[in-house]
Amino acid sequence: MNFFKRSLLSVWARKGKSLLQLFIFTIICLLVLSGLAIESAAKKASDLAKEKLGGEVTLQMDMEKMRNQQQSEGERTRFQLEPIPVKSAEELSTYSEVKGYNLYSSTNGIAEDFDPIENEDTSDSDEETENRGPFGENGNPMFQSDVSLQGVVFTDAVEEFMNGDSTLVEGEHITDQSLGKNVVVIEKTLADENDLTVGDTITVKGANEEEKTIELKIIGIYETTTNEQDQGMNFSFMNPYNKLYVPYTVANTLKGEDYENTIDRAVYYMKDPAEIDSFIQKAKKNSSIDFDTFKLDANDQLYNQMVGPINNVASFSKNVVYLVTISGAVILGLIVMLSIRERKYEMGVLLSLGEKRWKLIGQFVAEILIVAVLAIGISSACGNVVAGKISDQLLAQELAQQEQMNTPPSFRPGMGGSVGMRGQAANVETIDDLEIAITPKDLGMLSSIGMLIAVLSSFIPSLSVLRLHPKVILTKQD
């Protein structure tokens, strides 16, 4: 009789122990399959979040480092913005991790041949500024400005346009082809009030001592839903309808010669938020940027908010797979070892009859493999349900913990409060559901792990007994 037929008969003859092994093996397979399925679903959700949000890194002046330096030297804290060289900023845009970028240079101006949108208190403040002189009290040009100019490379890559607060309704966006040209994109309300259309020109004067005047051709009109800031009620230039988008070269011209070929900040959009750290490290190592003055600030809080809980669940599930695999092999190994010790007489008889040792080992392995095949089949049928229940429970715990961490203590129970009440983080929803689906890859991994457990749990214990001679085995029986 071959060893495989004997293994079938042995499994059938020892129904109680076989059912016990099947139950334990099924539990092990279900946990392993659930871990694999949750990990796959979390990776898929993470990839979707990456595509939806991406990640961004901002190059700007390191205000905190400057403050600490001034305090350490005993000086009074005074901030003076240091412009960033355009060449250095553009250098980072060529890195492989970057899918898009934008350069910003901001200034204020004075409308020469058109009327800005007035706020409620603008007229009063205008009368006051006229009495203060051309540059306001203490020579501050802020009181004289009535429009703001946002210098960029791409208007479609400006945050307000990407998040939907502003929308181009006529004409075209500013692009890198617009650099060096005197063009502008204005708000629809400002255009309607002044009967301006695409192709018309407006004149803006710089609100500084140089008082440079520049004529701008309107190439686009946008509409904004941005609310006016309270502190801007008395200043026309802070009214969102008076915001003009121009190439950063135009803004620099109005700011003066000292700002030529410089910008205020740069924003880089990553292909993958996971590459932010490598991008920053590469920039610090290879770029010409002075990181004693400037810094790269990673703005990946939206991505972390969305995928933080599912990444924690995926990490936990991965650890469960390792833990269950090892502990499952140990538990089954102990059960098989006890079973083999009870079958010493059977093995002694077979060995005395000339049966090969490797065939006896093959019999024990085959017995566990039969159980393993049944357990894998059962767990495959129930895997989606079990994995879904486990993922829902784990994810609910992670979400509850994150909400508790991000909710200020002053919030009363029932007030809501939310995950990520800081800045932009409130604009996205945390992923609170995983689409669990058992894939062929998961089943393949389960089969490999299950077979590995079966072989280890039967092969190793059998060696401890089969190393003995048949005579020794038979003479030691009671």
UniProtKB/TrEMBL annotation:
Domain annotation ABC3 transporter permease C-terminal: ranges: 321-470
MacB-like periplasmic core domain: residues covered: 147-282
Region spans: Disordered: 109-141
A UniProt-annotated Pfam family: FtsX
Keywords: Cell membrane, Membrane, Transmembrane, Transmembrane helix
Membrane topology category: Multi-pass membrane protein
TM helices/strands, residue ranges: 320-340, 360-387, 443-466
GO cellular component: plasma membrane
Compartment(s): Cell membrane
Gene Ontology MF terms: transmembrane transporter activity
Biased composition (Acidic residues): 112-129
Domain of life: Bacteria
Name of the protein this chain belongs to: Macrolide ABC transporter permease
